[in-house]
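Re: weekly structure request thread

Next one in the queue (447 aa):
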Amino acid sequence: MKKNKEKIIRTPFGTLRLANKKDAQRIRKTVMQLQRTTDSLTRKDIGDWRNAWQLAINIDNPNRQRLYDIYRDVEIDLHLAGCIQQREGFVMARSFKLVNQQGDEDQEAAKYFDKEWFKQLMKLALDANYWGHSLIELGNITTDINGLLTYDGVKLIPRKHVIPEYHRVVTDLSQDWHTGIDYHDTPFAEWLIEVGQPDSLGLYLKAATQTIPKKNALAFWDTFAEIFGMPMRIARTTSRDDKELAKMERMMADMGTEGWGIFQQGTEIEVVESTKGDAFNVYDKRIDRANSELSKLIIGQTMTIEDGSSLSQSETHLEVFQNLVEADCDTLRDVINNQLLPRMIRHGFPLKGIRFDWDYSVDYTPEQQAAYEQLVLNNYEVDPAYFQEKYNMPVGERRTVQSVALPTQQQQSQEEEQNQEEPQQKQQNNARPFFAPAPHDGAALDW
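Done, posted below.
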């Protein structure tokens, strides 16, 4: 038994039977570890973007490394990040359910997906819309606090190491894709989830045409403010002594809001005010145009994240946005049903015959839910098991509500007359002053 154990290695890609321990060490060295490198954060322009695009679409040797460096620069754009968070947030906030072959919801199966690893997997899968491709590795199988099977996490295979056109992973960025590992082969395919088309370069490719000029416009605007936003100090002197000139230069550099200087006779200092006033139209308008173009690219419109002009137009734009959200939901559903669930079943999860679907039932607020249940109770007989299961409380037989006889019209008229007579009676009883003494018999009151 000990000899057989030495021939087995358990990896996130599956259980492999090897000839000896040296093979196990070799597998861990070449497959389990990737030679990570630091991403380049140098300044990019449109020329760099075009060259990187050309390298990425090379048929013989596709290389996305430079393009991903530009994407890393693109994703820090604040407006673009807000659009992506809005689009992904609608998908992540949607309720889902697990249904069996009869179409009934399976609450027990849903417990295997209400985990942190599953939410992270959905987030990485949605990122494929913008990067073009995501290769996600499932973690090791373990058990949670309730004894249910679960994964200890998911990881994104570094995109620079993945050549999706030829479904290969290279351990070193300098390697040719021919020497890479085919992740469609077993046992690697049993632990990897692939999202996105192999030849897709994502929405960041188009977004870069706006984020790069926008970043440059912001930098130019800062330069404009530095040069023309503050008045310029000019010192004129007739001295040619290098020491005197260096001394004057230091004094000019040290002059601040309360600056001062000592100058020789004949020195002139002039403060030049800026007359430039079109910075807003030059730079801010270009930034606004870039933001609106990014909004149209990511969420299909502008009104749900920028100012809208009318309610009807906002509703129309919201419908366009919801269509994009539905498309993302369909993509996630296909990935989970066609890739994740089959792998989970092979890994021992009791999910045979289970299918993932989105829950399109209406979500009510507590007040709306109470009004909805009261409306149903007033018109239909409801099984007490519904409340017992939903609110986790014992429910007995429903009480019989006794009908209350409504007063007749005659009774109402008599009550109204009685109510009108009571104030008059009170007024008559209170006609005498409160502190007035009782009158003597036969004697007149003398005030």
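Residues 292 and 302 are 6 Å apart (CA to CA). The chain has 15 helices and 14 strands.
Next request, please.
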